[in-house]
C-alpha cells in the first residue's frame, strides 16, 4: 500500500542518515562497531509489520541519531 511504501522510505532515509553520521566518527574501530550495530538493528527489525511498532522504532532511531550527532559535535569541539 502507499502507507507502507512511505513508511519504508522513512526507514531507508533514517538508515542512510545514521550511516552518514557514522562516517564522521574518527576512530576506525568505533566506526566499524557502529556500522555493524546499525546494520544489525535494521536487519533484526526488517520483518516488523505492525504500524505502531514501526513508528516507535523510527522515533527511537531518530533519537539515537540525534544523540550520535551531539556526541560527534562535542568530540570535534
Automatic annotation (TrEMBL):
One of its GO terms (cellular component) is mitochondrion. PANTHER family: LYR MOTIF-CONTAINING PROTEIN 2 (PTHR13675:SF0). It is found in: Mitochondrion. Involved in efficient integration of the N-module into mitochondrial respiratory chain complex I. The keyword Transit peptide applies. Keywords: Mitochondrion, Transit peptide. This is LYR motif-containing protein 2. Residues 9-67 form the Complex 1 LYR protein domain. Belongs to the complex I LYR family. Pfam families: Complex1_LYR (PF05347).
